[in-house]
Write a structure and sequence with these properties.
Layout: E1 13-17, H1 22-33, E2 37-42, H2 45-57, E3 62-66, H3 72-86, E4 91-94, H4 110-138, E5 142-147, H5 163-182, E6 187-194, H6 200-208, H7 210-218, H8 231-239, E7 250-253
Parallel strand pairs: 1-2, 1-4, 2-3, 4-5, 5-6, 6-7
Helix pairs in contact: 1-8, 3-4, 4-5, 6-7
Length: 260
């Protein structure tokens, strides 16, 4: 098999949360371009339909489920429905996540803390347990890709809501532990840790907090934020046979921000 052929995903099927916008959309399109069908999960029907149409235009089967996987019950429902339709899946990307709040720790209500942990961490656990667990049961391997963050390694300057840093650090730890457990089953589990990317939520942050965003940009050695399409090739690598021998890794893609 040639080197480039090892990146092909023909006949595979992806389940991705938050797959219709931002980083999730770009990873979905890249994996479809490499040959895989895609099941998208998200809250917004219009963007789900649009991204599914773009995947279909690339010649791959696509469908979607409307669900808020930040709600544990909704996450379980979406996973079960997807498994009933298409499972077991070959690739899982736990992409849903976000900060959503800017509240100092001393003022952070417990329910707000729990909401962010459910969004970033519990959703990853549930989808890994159900979609990834079906890969283990099938016995022919699979790929789990968790979207963590450099915020699981460093604290963001000038922003409250440390439930985000905490949950993303836990995603990295969960990735490593699950990778160890599932390696004998040929299911690899890796994490991508993005730095600053100008997704829609971060564009809103930039409008509300221009000084914080400008400080962030000035501390990136490459001089600017990443573009969502920068994540597509990395997701294809981790989803493909090219990464067969990599598991438990947390791959940083941040323009060098965490080097200083």
């Amino acid at each position: 098999m040639g080197v480039l052929e090892r990146f092909r995903l023909d006949g595979k099927r992806l389940f991705i949360t938050g797959g219709s916008r931002g980083l999730g959309r770009e990873m979905s399109l890249a994996i479809a371009e490499a040959g895989a069908g895609v099941t998208l999960v998200g809250r917004d029907e219009a963007s789900l339909r649009q991204t599914a149409a773009e995947i279909a235009a690339r010649g791959q089967p696509a469908d979607f489920l409307i669900a808020d996987v930040g709600q544990p019950g909704e996450a379980e429902r979406a996973c079960q429905e997807a498994l009933d339709r298409h499972g077991p899946f070959d690739i899982l990307i736990n992409n849903v996540g976000g900060r959503r709040i800017d509240i100092p720790t001393q003022e952070l209500p417990t329910e707000k803390w729990q909401q962010i942990l459910d969004l970033n961490l519990t959703s990853t656990f549930i989808c890994t347990r159900m979609i990834g667990g079906a890969m283990v049961s099938r016995g022919t391997g699979g790929r789990v890709i968790n979207i963590a963050s450099i915020s699981g390694m460093v604290a963001n300057r000038g922003i409250g809501g440390r439930s985000y840093e905490t949950s993303k650090a836990a995603v990295i730890a969960f990735t490593r532990a699950t990778a160890a457990d599932w390696a004998p089953h040929k299911v690899t589990v890796n994490a991508i840790c993005p730095g600053g990317f100008m997704t829609e939520p971060n564009q809103r942050w930039a409008q509300l907090n221009p000084e914080i965003i400008n400080t962030f940009r000035n501390l990136i050695p490459t001089g600017d934020f990443g573009q969502p399409e920068d994540l597509g090739p990395l997701a294809v690598y981790l989803a493909s046979d090219a990464s067969r021998y990599m598991t438990g890794a947390a791959l940083v893609i941040d323009g060098g921000y965490t080097l200083w």
